[in-house]
User: What shape does this take?
Amino acid sequence: MRIALFTETFLPKVDGIVTRLCHTVDHLQRIGHQVLVFSPEGGITEHKGAKVYGVSGFPLPLYPELKIALPRPAIGYALEQFQPDIIHVVNPAVLGLSGIFYSKFLKLPLVASYHTHLPQYLQHYGLGMLEGLLWELLKAGHNQAALNLCTSTAMMAELSAHGIERVDLWQRGVDTELFHPDLASSQMRDRLTQNHPESPLLLYVGRLSAEKEIERIKPILEAIPQARLALVGDGPHRQALEKHFAGTNTYFVGYLRGRELGSAFASADAFIFPSRTETLGLVLLEAMAAGCPVVAARSGGIPDIVTDGVNGYLFDPQADIQDAINATIRLLENKQERDTIRQNARREAEKWGWASATRQLQDYYEKVIFAQQARV
Assistant: This one.
């Protein structure tokens, strides 16, 4: 099978969407398929044997890490040379629109997938009044597809409620070798606690951006005076967060990758995740695979992963942050319960390998291709 994949974000950017796409491309290539990735230009021309066609663009003003790549005729020439069997558009917004156009022009089956809950992001950038318009645009784009994949049951329900049709679930996945409890290390704990390894270590990993609501971790940190907080990642909100957390035991680590990131998860006592805008929260699954107990908002796709009191803790993000404080204190004070949570979290993660998620995607592709051929 030859798959043309259009995405608004790809390497060298690091986030949950890119992680999923990289593993998906890798596994599709491994099982004999050919993938051509269209993405904003980032200096990457190949990934795991798949060609990456970089399209020049410009930084998004509100989020300079993201590039807007505008459709152009050269994309059509590249597609005609590649001769795909199917087009898959990921979060179609700008570049993805050319994938939708060429699926019609070349009469190719189209799959779309929804990974970023953009309508909720608007609230955090003072653009909430555009939410209704954005849903209409999303509906117009996604309803061109024969199949719309979501990464959680909550997002399936939300998209369906807003008139997006032919919705199904693309199962979660995690690298259970890269993220493993055995990667815990005293050196990493020293680093993340800034040489206070005896202190409780709270961890956040992800984009430092407004919609992640990282400010909500501060009252948890202040309620546990001896605790240290490590924020792993970077983004447009870093400067504001540095001011917000000034005077607290907070360390801005920057990006970690590979085994270093796996070691950070495995070396922490609790992973705190206050975001209410997650379509899934892949980073939670990575924490769980590493045996790091999770305290997360009961919102979006997160309850698909975390079962409260069994493999992590959930708090009500609409209520007072005291819920999250209580859950974190309980986790830190009860070693036996913490160990049980760690073991259950690892067991949950072990169910969700990337190979299985990619086989499921392959099955979806085959059904869509077969259905289109049957109509011709």
Observations:
- The mean pLDDT is 93.
- The chain has two domains: 2-173+353-375, 181-350.
- DSSP finds 14 helices and 16 strands in the chain.
- The first strand starts at residue 2 and ends at 7.
